[in-house]
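User: structure tokens for this one?
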Amino acid sequence: MLYRLSRTPPPLAMAARVLPRPFHPTAASAMIVSTNSHFILPPSPTVVHISFGKSLSIIGRKFHYGLNCKEDRRWSVAGWSGKVFASQREYRKSRKRPLKKKEKELELSVNICIEEQLPDDPEIVDISEMLRLNVPMAMKSAFDNLKDSDYQTRDRAINDVGCFESVELSVLLCNDEFIRELNKDWRDVDSPTDVLSMSQHIPELELPILMLGDIVISVETAARQAEERGHSLLDEIRILLVHGLLHLLGFDHEISDEAEAEMEKEEELLLKSLWWKGKGLIQSAYDAEAAGSSPLENIDRKKEGSLRFYKPKFSYIFCDMDGTLLNSKSQISSATAEALREATSRGVKVVIATGKTRSAAITVLKSVCLAGKDGIVSEVSPGVFVQGLLIYGRQGREISRTNLDPVVCREACLYSLEHKVPLAAFSEDRILTLFHHPLVDSLHSIYNEPKAEIIPSVEQLLTGTDIQKVIFFDTVEGVRSTLRPYWTEAIGDNASVVQAQPDILEIVPPGTSKGSGVKILLDHLGVSPKEIMAIGDGENDVEMLELASLGVALSNGSEKAKAVADVIGASNDDNGAADAIYRYAF
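Assistant:
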């Protein structure tokens, strides 16, 4: 429901654009905007001229229809700038006929704007073009109804429109985020609404121009209401336009039950006179309440399906997989998959940055139809894999590979055999191990990595093979109290230890990280870190979260990741990655 601002606001702090598309043939070729609003104006806004005749007709680019005026003022037709007598030109003298007086015309100056954060959605652009005709029609009908109205509650500061030379009105289409900010600034309410009226009329000034003000409509909320009420987005925006216009003309449903009834009646009357579909906003609100529907203005913004009303804030989103895109069952939920699809459909490139091999990432995302040519990962797409040790650029070509020191690999293998601690060595898309163990098998059964190959000796495992990293499996306590302390000291400066999972210890080349891998890929693509958002959860995501313009750590993540993140999101079991995309990427 709209809330009218009772005070006259200063110039609106809104950056808006006016459609560059040509006007409808019946629309006028000049446009004037309220001087108290900051809009980017086109060379020629829409002007509709209204004369004080008796009927409505279209003559060229002017709409003519009758209005009453207290003072019967009329504009006369301009005469010659100099006198020329008939006798001097040898014309036949005749009785001079009086020139017909031109009836006074009321100029309606209408400006339709789209807030700059709304993307170029074809439906919104088409609706904006339609409003160029609809708004003057609604103004005409509303003004006609004022002549004979006997409403007791209407503020009569605007009563005789015909006594003005022109009437100015701006309509701004925006999203929930923009209208929420207006609500916070002017009503101390931190939530979006469907429409706001911003009056600019100051009766005391007695200006020849009636500056009605601005009507701000959230097309995002309007779309939700249109879906619930079973009509089109254009129908809903027309309903909101009528409601906002009546507020500017002095109707206010909030002051009393009688005022609400009068405004409701006028809404229905105006919609019927215009042959527009739908019930008035007041009646629709009552119907929704009677049906037990929750107020639409309380719905969280930017949920599934509403990204169409927002421009992307980032060119790229880099996403971790385990613990981030994948839940605690190592599965990607339908909600998260849909968020990724919607982001890519809006022009954002989603890039995987994971400790997994590329083949494992493809297997997981293939299950939700996000792998392959039209997905977010494939053998021909960029990506950061195996903790940034294998990086693929344009067309999926390898641009960087970092291998673990063979001496460190040998020591790790010997430790595994001696202490019977299961080990897995990552070599591109192969997983190598020295003996069978259920925890090593879990890499394939749970984490979708390639099935481990058992190599009978350390020498055979290392011969002719590039190893990017090795990982040890143990209990959480075993990793914390035994493996990590031992290997942190043993490897010195020859390698680094990192953890993505609490029961797995990874040994990687020194000075490498997922974040350094992302930086290499960004340089290859010619993309600045300011253009990216990163989502992760683990200790191995720290550098990536620090590098990104916005780093989001999920609540299930490590304390180190959450300490460096700009935002802490929901958990991976609560679709935290999807929520982060909807909330922060647009």
